[in-house]
Amino acid sequence: KRDWNINVDEILEASVHFGHKMKKWNPKMEPYIIPKCLTRSRSHLINFVKTAQYLSEACDLVFTAARCNEEFLIVGTNKKVADSVFEAAIRAQCHYVNDKWFSGLLTNWSTTKIILSKFRKLRIKEKIGGLKPRDASILKRQLRHFERALEGIKYMRRLPDFVIIIDQQKNYTALRECKILGIPTISLIDTNSDPDLAF
Length: 199
Known about the structure:
The chain is α/β, with parallel strands linked by helices and 199 residues long. It has two domains: 1-69, Glucose-6-phosphate isomerase like protein, domain 1 (Rossmann fold, 3-Layer(aba) Sandwich), CATH 3.40.50; 70-198, 3-Layer(aba) Sandwich (Rossmann fold), CATH 3.40.50.10490. It is built from six helices and seven strands, in the order αβββαβαβααβαβ. β4 (72-75), α3 (79-92) and β5 form a beta-alpha-beta unit. α4 (109-128) packs across α5. One of its GO terms (cellular component) is mitochondrial small ribosomal subunit.
């Protein structure tokens, strides 16, 4: 096993140990929080030792899958993480969705493939140029519409082998589609989430 050197100090520094307020928590998260320990704002504290352990296991899984050339899709549509999702996906050379998840993106893959093909053709058309000003303006408008939804998956030719989901609550539709298709997910969840949904 590879040693990822995930330590408690780094987790504390990143503030990932702060959960949601007590009134919003999911009781299924009880094994993952520090019992009888609340912050001043009455938020739960996540057990950072368990977090480090699970992160290390997830990293091992990702590393092994990457060595086998398996395809990853990172999903994080929350505005706070959108830039981080983009940077991580570019660095790891994998697909991503960081703006909006369109329902049926994976479960209706045959349609998604057709739309992606159309998007790629429009990009080629734009690069070739030579269009009349009115046609060029229409093309730009079409591309803007496509880019918002498809920029991170424009080169995806098949369903991903793994999906990494940041914020299960926000991206529940993506998680549900993965469950329907049997695509393994790695979910980063908070105390308001259901850990049984991540598999």
